[in-house]
Write a structure and sequence with these properties.
Blueprint (H helix, E strand, L loop, with lengths): L2 E5 L5 H14 L4 E5 L5 E6 L4 H8 L10 E9 L8 H7 L8 E6 L3 H4 L2 H17 L13 E8 L2 E7 L25 H11 L5 H4 L5 E5 L5 H8 L3 E5 L6 H4 L4 E4 L13 E6 L5 H13 L5 E7 L5 H18 L5 E6 L7 E8 L1
Parallel strand pairs: 5-6, 8-9, 8-11, 9-10, 11-12
Antiparallel strand pairs: 1-3, 1-4, 2-3, 4-7, 6-7, 12-14, 13-14
Bound molecules: S-adenosylmethionine.
S-adenosylmethionine (SAM) binds next to α8.
Length: about 350
């Protein structure tokens, strides 16, 4: 058995399966996904096992919407002797390249999280043994592949490796953030994660700098506006609801009780457009793309609320609308990214930027 193992939020397994099947066949790697609802992962089995590594290299992780992490899975070890798990795992590493990091992981589910302590404990002898056998560099090396051991129970694990230029740098593919107590809603974490995911850290100083003008459509009570204000930006907060009083007192927020679909900014110097309106994804996608195509803003960050079923198809539809708007406006250079972030639930965050 060899394929690609992908992690996701519990309940999104079939969306990952549809996406990986579609995108793998586009690069001529064929196989079939194995899913179990609420398992928090998907295994895509390759018909030609030697293509698993190719898939882990060529399937762009950055462009996967629903996967948090992926690795070329070289095998599954079952019925491990609880007194010696190291020997069979070591045997599975036989044909692995030299790795620069080891991650012993589990699914982000109730059952999976119960394995977290065990995974932390076992990673110590595993790391030592792999180093002794020259399967792991003595010091962590970010340019080498990452070895993954993904336990589903304490005697069963999938083993493989990912490539550091085409994976998530985060353990379990999860960005953990602390809720800022002054923020008016938990939604604030979604925009924080989106900025940290889509904007390279070294560009924060320019693209997220204080003084920039922003528009927040569907702003109330102000969790997203809070993120912009914290970074020193000036925000036009558009919503008929009530804004958090402390945010208004900063003097950086202008409250606009209007319809986000009709709102026109007073000045032409908007850098960020953010939008969290609960509306049909196609409608929001068209609005966002129109703002960017007409250069009413430089970058847009927005959430698309997804239907319960066929979420991948729904996302494809929304992304196509964006591409069509950009094409009609003859915008050739733009960046479009979409990710089901850790803090998202039934929604995907999209970033659109004029280049
Ligand atoms: C999920 S909440 C936004 C939460 C906000 N991002 C936060 O962090 O606190 C969605 C908001 O969109 C607003 N909304 C929905 N449709 C709208 C529209 N057409 N124009 C303006 N606001 C709208 C609602 O009033 C609601 O406050």
């Amino acid at each position: 058995m060899a394929g690609l193992l992908l992690y996701c939020r519990s309940g999104f397994e079939s969306d990952v399966a549809n996406e990986v099947q579609d995108k793998a066949s586009a690069i001529e790697v064929y196989g079939y996904p194995q899913t179990k609802l609420h398992s928090g992962f998907v295994l895509f089995n390759c018909y030609q096992p030697e293509q698993a590594e190719l898939l882990a290299k060529k399937l762009s992780f950055e462009h996967l919407i629903f996967a948090r992490q992926m690795f070329a899975c070289q095998g599954i070890i079952e019925n491990m002797d609880v007194a010696d798990r190291v020997t069979p795992i070591l045997a599975a590493f036989e044909n692995f390249p030299l790795c620069g990091e080891l991650r012993v992981e589990y699914a982000d589910t109730t059952d999976g999280r119960e394995l977290s302590k065990f995974c932390r404990k076992i990673s110590v002898p595993l790391r030592q043994t792999l180093r002794k056998r020259n399967k792991l560099t003595n010091k962590e090396n970010a340019s080498k592949p990452v070895a993954h051991i993904f336990f589903t129970t304490s005697d069963k694990a999938y083993v493989g490796y990912s490539f550091s230029n085409n994976n998530s740098a985060l353990p379990l593919g999860i960005l953990r953030l602390k809720f800022p107590h002054a923020a008016p809603s938990r939604s604030t974490l979604k925009l924080d994660e989106a900025f940290q995911t889509f904007i390279p850290k070294e560009e924060h100083g320019i693209r997220l700098q204080g003084g920039l003008q922003a528009v927040d459509l569907g702003a109330c009570p102000g969790g997203w506006t809070y993120q912009l204000v914290q970074r020193g930006m000036f925000v036009q907060a558009v919503d008929n609801g009530a804004m958090d009083q402390a945010l208004m007192e900063t003097g950086q927020v202008t409250y606009c009780p209007e319809d986000g679909f009709k709102f026109q900014p007073k000045k032409n110097n908007v850098y960020w457009l953010v939008c969290d309106m609960i509306e049909q994804p196609q409608r929001v996608a068209k609005l966002m793309a129109t703002w960017v195509a007409e250069e009413r803003c430089k970058e847009a960050m927005f959430n698309l609320k997804l239907p319960m079923k066929k979420r991948y198809e729904s996302m494809q539809g929304a992304l196509l609308i964006i591409q069509q708007v950009m094409h009609s406006a003859q915008v050739k250079k733009y960046q479009l990214q979409a990710k089901h972030l850790y803090h998202n639930r039934e929604e995907v965050t999209v970033h659109l930027r004029l280049m």
